[in-house]
Design brief:
The protein is mostly helical. Helix 8 packs parallel to helix 12.
Amino acid sequence: MKRGLGAAWPIALGYFPVAVAFGALGAQAGLSPLWVQLTSLLVFAGASQFALVGLLAQGVPPLLAALLGLLLNLRHAFYGPALRPYLRGGPLEAFFLTDEVFAAALRALPGLPPGERRGYFLGLGLGAYLSWNLGTALGVLGAQGLLAFPGLGEALSFALPALFFLLALPHLKNPVALLAGGVALGFHLLGQTAWGLFLAGITGLLGEGFGERRRP
């Protein structure tokens, strides 16, 4: 696990400012500091948490807001099968599985001895989790001061997609990844981003499965 924690620092650095922005925006929306912190402790899903806070601030019923947040995380259903050849996970691994942890793990796990893979993955996830929760706490406590700076919330939120892009770059040598990315981009340009992500995941799974069958 220690090795995974050490490798988690780029994710932690990217998560921290986004979590600060989430905590500050949650407090600004009128939600209690405890509730905002609990979403990071119990949900730990950046995009879903931002959506949840926004929906609740608009008066959407909590159950419906939670359901919409769950739908946003359906993309994780494609992450598990991609990691399964290298990792036999359980509930804790599933909880720690985020976009960035997935990208980093997919790059590192194939080169690790099987006995070290679970500890490495848990270290990655724990480092990301701690950073996200510390950032949330800072954002909640310093909400008024942080959001007084024009454009700071938007600037902090940009850190997460920038981090994921950097982590995904090594996978662009994979033709299946390029094909899946092309599918997602094409549908996004057509205004169907959700369908694009879904079909890109299907493309990646089918492409990798076909490649495995062709390997001797």
